[in-house]
Amino acid sequence: MTEQTQLGHGLRYTVALIEIWGGLNGLWGLAHDIETTASKIPVTLMPGIAIIALVMVASIVAGVALWHDRRWGYTLSVPVQLFQVVWFVSAGLTFRIAASGWMLADVLLRYAGENLVLAWQLDLIHKGAYALSLAPREEFTVAVNLIALAILVWLGLRLRRR
Fold this sequence. Notes:
This protein is an alpha+beta fold and 162 residues long. 54% of the residues lie in helices and 23% in strands. It comes from Methylobacterium brachythecii.
């Protein structure tokens, strides 16, 4: 096996593990949150909860298919990663999916009052896999999840070669 082939397999297994673990972690957290706050969840959040659950399940299925090097696993991974690339916090809604499980790397643009800030964050022991809230916020943030973006680029390259 050539060195490039070994690297390709290593990346495939890494992405598969990230998707499987992130999906499991996210489903576990979502189930726990629903169990503890079901009576307090506004009906208007139900579509968002369904989308989060669907992305987490798709992440697990795509990860298993990637592990077995199935083409449809690469294809299913694309929308899973697309849902994670951009996240935002606004005055009336917060939406974020991060099925990368334990790590976050983001570049963000935040507007709070009079200040516009370009920043980055790196969190290697992140516990949460999603954020969904109608709580009012004073700041507005739009961010790019660099891990999801890198995986999406890798998936695009792999799908072009297959």
